Amino acid sequence: MQEEPYFYHPLENIEDIDEFETAVERTHLTKGLSKERPYTYWTLELYDQENGIRGGGGLGVLAADTRRIAEQMGVDFALITPFYPSEPHQVMQGETVVDEHVPVDYRNFGFKYIDSVNVKCAGNLCHLDVIEKCFRSTRIICITEPNFGELYSGMSGSDHRLYQEVSLGFGGYAALKLLGLKPAIMQLNEVATFFAALSRLDELASNGMDFYEAVVYTRKHTLYTNHTLVQAAEAEFSEEQFERFVYPNLKSPAVRKWIKDKFVNGKLKLSSVAIEIAELRSGVSKLHARVANYHDIAGNKVKFKAVTNGIDMNKWVLPSILKFYHENNIVDNINYPANNFVDNLGCITAEQIRSLKSEGRKILNEVLSSRPDQNGVFLHFNDDEFVFDFKRRFVDYKRPELPFKDLNRLKAILESANAHYILAGRIHTGDHNMAEKLHKILHEIKKDDYLSTHVHYIADYDEKLAFALSCGSNVAINVPIVGLEACGTSWMKDIANLNLLISTHDGGVADASSENYLSVRGSTEDDELGELYRRMEEAIAAWQNDFDLEFLIQKQLAAYIPVISGSRMMRDYLDYLFPA
């Protein structure tokens, strides 16, 4: 049966898409959300350990936060993602990180088997199980099969990666139909989810809707959210791969031709067609939306709406800190910035900060009691011990190695306060360059008796460790190369948990002025390194001075409470999709 469109304008003699688009009223969505027509959120990665799904980094954490925030706000919402039957963990062998692979079974996490759907790939009919777990107004819908592989299995342009993406798109859309759901909006998180919108376009075109009307209808109800900055770094697929994995799943000859026409020299970047199939496009911070370098098929630079990522404060903020925010009217019951929240921040005292951080330190010690460092030591920090941390995905542009460029200077800073430096972050499988950098850091600090007992690498970084470090450390370090971080959310958790932030002015941090945190600036990396060390010294001094500590914490919160609020993010999306 043909899907009933939200609008329908019978038009005659439409010869090209531009003419049709100008003939249609240029509004956004024309129907509200409902249980049967939910907000659908498509992601190749979900990081939700409570529900048995372990992602690889920030994209998956954001997806889980978005679903939870939708539940808290009563938004009708369906998250569609794969359930990978194997998940990677990382352990230390000497000074080297190695991967271990652990099988997982969705039946152990409360998912309900619904039925199976099929996709056609490489001459085979592949059967995908559809499983579901519901949470009030929201649900997680997964497709899975025993040989589906791990998250990001294989190279980004490989056959197996394409199989996973096609399975999510065509299989996930079939799963919605199986459940009787019609998307009010399809939010495509990164280009790997493009095939979901393609599946919808194919359904409309093959069920009798005029092709150009089907294109415009699909575009009008599709939001492409980009989480990276540079299109050139994206993998490509060949037309031969599409012949084997994509075209067999298309019913409409017109849709197949539409796709074939997008190839350039036999190659296709999915971002090019994701941009074409989505009228609505968003970037994940103000800076990202302004500088993201993406172009459409015609070579024109694409504009993105800025909707800065946020966090689920119920998940990531120490309960006693969140209670303090509620009782002092800093955030409301859905963690949206309260009226006059800036004035209300004046109630925060150094004594309260230290007391709340002491509670967080207990959580950190509890987690570290089962997580040894690179020396096999289980750490325990007293309240008067000072802790710096770097906790985020280990990739070149985030520069986890930066503070170790001058070990003598780093050692002097740590010695001045008997401080510790914790490194925690996941290295993607196959990132040999970053694995070698970590090995070099650990090898060098092992040579020094003081550094070897005050610099700690904690393997197998996950949600639990991320939360504990946000709660229990004093200072968070975030030093991406300026211009390469789209948003980042680890720093948001640090600010919300009353850590001082040392950061370069990039990603979501750049949503507010660099005067609002301990900013690292410089025209060269050497300049930045010197500034980083000075900021570390300032942070130690601030924690020893009540006035400075209160001033810096209040200033961070005043600037960033609106930025980090996940309910603000959801409202921004809804306002963009359903303008008044």
Q: Total domains, how many?
A: 2
Which fold name corresponds to the CATH topology of the largest domain? Answer: Rossmann fold
Number of H- or I-type helical stretches: 21
**CATH superfamily caption of the largest domain:** Glycogen Phosphorylase B
What helical percentage do the residues reach?
25-40%
Provide a descriptive summary of the structure in words.
The protein has 580 residues and is α/β, with parallel strands linked by helices. The chain has two domains: 17-309 and 572-577, 3-Layer(aba) Sandwich (Rossmann fold), CATH 3.40.50; 360-546, Glycogen Phosphorylase B (Rossmann fold, 3-Layer(aba) Sandwich). The chain is built from 21 helices and 19 strands. The strands form four sheets. Strands 5-6-7-2-1-8-9-12-13 form a nine-stranded mixed sheet, with helices on both faces. The protein has a six-stranded parallel sheet with strand order 16-15-14-17-18-19, with helices on both faces. The protein has a two-stranded antiparallel ribbon with strand order 3-4. β1, α2 (58-73) and β2 form a beta-alpha-beta unit. It is globular and about 70 Å long. 48% of the residues are buried.
